[in-house]
Amino acid sequence: MKSKIIVIGDTPLVTGFGLAGLEDTLIVNDSGFQIALESTIEKKEYGIIVVNEKMFSQIDWRLKKKLDSIAYPVVIPIQDIKNQASNEGEEIKNLIKRALGFDISKK
């Protein structure tokens, strides 16, 4: 089964991915983010969910615990332009490693 990628977040994040050609996107505000994320996790068609990091940091602890315990789908928080991180690549690599069960960068 082929998995899809979806982006859930604010207008700048979703618009950017949409302009890059991603078709599955969902623009939400802070109050609707957690509901959108929870319902998207239940849909087996999505293997990767890209989300706004600021919104993701505000979700309920129970949902965070659930996300930490599952390997599929992979949720990737992306920072907005104002808050760029230097270790973002490492975080994404660790999420992929958790989902696949091995490190794809090792030979």
Morphology: globular
Radius of gyration: 14 Å
Summed up, the helix count is: 5
Low-pLDDT regions: none
Major sheet size, sense and barrel closure = 4 strands, parallel
The oligomeric state of the chains shown is single chain
Share in β-strands? 15-25%
Structural class: alpha/beta
Mean pLDDT: 82
Helix content: 40-55%
Explain this structure.
The protein has helices at residues 11-19, 30-42, 53-56, 61-69, 88-100, and strands at 4-9, 25-27, 46-52, 74-78. The longest helix is centred in the middle third of the chain and has 13 residues, at 30-42. The chain has a four-stranded parallel β-sheet, sandwiched between helices. The mean pLDDT is 82. With 107 residues, the chain is α/β, with parallel strands linked by helices.
Topology readout:
Elements: E1 4-9, H1 11-19, E2 25-27, H2 30-42, E3 46-52, H3 53-56, H4 61-69, E4 74-78, H5 88-100
Parallel strand pairs: 1-2, 1-3, 3-4
